[in-house]
Amino acid sequence: MMEAKMFCYQCQETMKGTGCILKGVCGKESHTAKAMDLLMFVVRGISVVTDEFRNAGHSVAAEVNRFVVDALFCTITNANFDDESILNRVDKGMALRNRLIEEAKEKGISLPEIDELQWQGGRDEYAAKAESVGVLRESDTDLRSLKELMTYGLKGMAAYLEHAMRLGYDDASIHTFMQHALAATATKSLPAGEWVKMVLQTGEYGVKTMALLDKANTERYGNPEMTKVNIGVGKRPGILISGHDLKDMEELLKQTEGTGVDVYTHSEMLPAHYYPAFKKYSHFVGNYGNAWWKQREEFTTFNGPILFTTNCIVPPLANAEYKERMFTTNSTGYPGCKYIQADAEGRKDFSEIIEIAKQCQPPTEIERGEIIGGFAHNQVLQLADKVVDAVKSGAIRRFVVMAGCDGRMKGRDYYTEFAKALPKDTVILTAGCAKYRYNKLPLGDINGIPRVLDAGQCNDSYSLAVIAMKLKEVFELNDINELPIVYNIAWYEQKAVIVLLALLSLGVKKIHLGPTLPAFLSPNVAKVLVDTFQIDTISDVEDDLKMFQLS
């Protein structure tokens, strides 16, 4: 175990707004954080070699690309709390790195003499090494801020890329950029201005990655469509599926068909209900509960097993009975929970989860009714004439983008109050679990257009960008910032970071980010973002409504 002091400030809840040093607010232990630091060290080393491979005109094996993506994904907030799972990746990465180094020698490729390539410690030395390779390895505060901002964007990008890859969609240029950027953090001595350029380039590749995932999801499962989703329960036992991976969603629905077991979504899996391909399953009952951070109480009342397909795990309390029913897969992990491994063809066997479900009581009802969603870009563009007419007539005065993440901080009540206080001639565009702050409010509609248009998961923030660009074209505007759209976005972790960078790369300005600005933005870096993009943070509802000219 790695018991040494940690330093982590990659999520919004980081301790005192500066950094977690004893234990993560997310529940991550210091030794787990250190294991992740060491894994990132190994990934940087691999990326240095692969960057040199490509510079010399040589290809990089798909196995390497998959490893880097998985390693980045498993280090994002709330994804993996299992030390052994992470350290096994370190072992694998060290072996992979050394193999690549040998291949470089055979090909006559010279490599830089850096610690990421030269260190050869074993398991008994991991803990000591982790002390020197974490976030604080960069002493310059501003360079550290820029490097970490880019790295967190890459982690978010990896999460979205992994989902696309699981559906058979990939793009070599994205891997090339990701590994080049990671290599730069280990080898390049660049002025701050050059790092800023790389950060914005990360946003450009974020757009590319989210477009790839959008293509993968829609070509496989159809375009999301306007859908009413049941939030009540049925009378049969159920399995609750959380996270973001639609491939797992598909396999679970297929394997539970005809078993007498129902399937429910939780948190970010809610948008699975919007895809036509999943609507044929009569045992796909609805959505249970709210955003990820309420899972301790909601998993208790659900009564059946829970499958985590991606991040958003909240460590169960010590006496939590549902821990025995928790399963993880893909890049996730939690000590004591069964891990579902894919076979050589990428298929998974969920039979154990199904058998446990059969022995459980049906879910306890915690609410009833329906919520509406499915307003990704294809669906909204089908409504384009109605939307344009509503804008031209003045029925819709403003669109308010309130996409992003939810979280535990009490200050996030702001988003519920802000939504309630919005004038009735405004429409909320949302994606991600931030929607749970207002998607069950009775906000009504405007000429048949719901006042909350939910595009889907956090990666479906891409849809909101597509909608904005289409509206810019329809209204014959020169600048996306001339649209009647304001941005009041909540963030929590690294997938939100890549969404933010993607929007900045598209030229979107005046984004308000809350409930706090990231701790990893140094004052100077924050000033660059403010001066260049007019980024700001939230204050209080009344003042922000005036500032947005919505009061």
TrEMBL record:
Keywords: 4Fe-4S, Cytoplasm, Iron, Iron-sulfur, Metal-binding, Oxidoreductase. InterPro entries: HCP/CODH (IPR004137), Hydroxylam_reduct (IPR010048), Prismane-like_a/b-sand (IPR016099), Prismane-like_sf (IPR011254), Prismane_a-bundle (IPR016100). One of its GO terms (cellular component) is cytoplasm. One of its GO terms (molecular function) is hydroxylamine reductase activity. GO terms for biological process: response to hydrogen peroxide. Its cofactor is hybrid [4Fe-2O-2S] cluster; [4Fe-4S] cluster. It comes from the Bacteria. Its EC number is 1.7.99.1. The modification Cysteine persulfide is found at C405. It catalyses: A + NH4(+) + H2O = hydroxylamine + AH2 + H(+). The keyword Magnesium does not apply. It is found in: Cytoplasm. Its main location: cytoplasm. Hybrid [4Fe-2O-2S] cluster binds at H244, E268, C312, C405, C433, C458, E493, K495. Belongs to the HCP family. Catalyzes the reduction of hydroxylamine to form NH(3) and H(2)O. This is Hydroxylamine reductase. It comes from Bacteroides intestinalis. The gene is hcp.
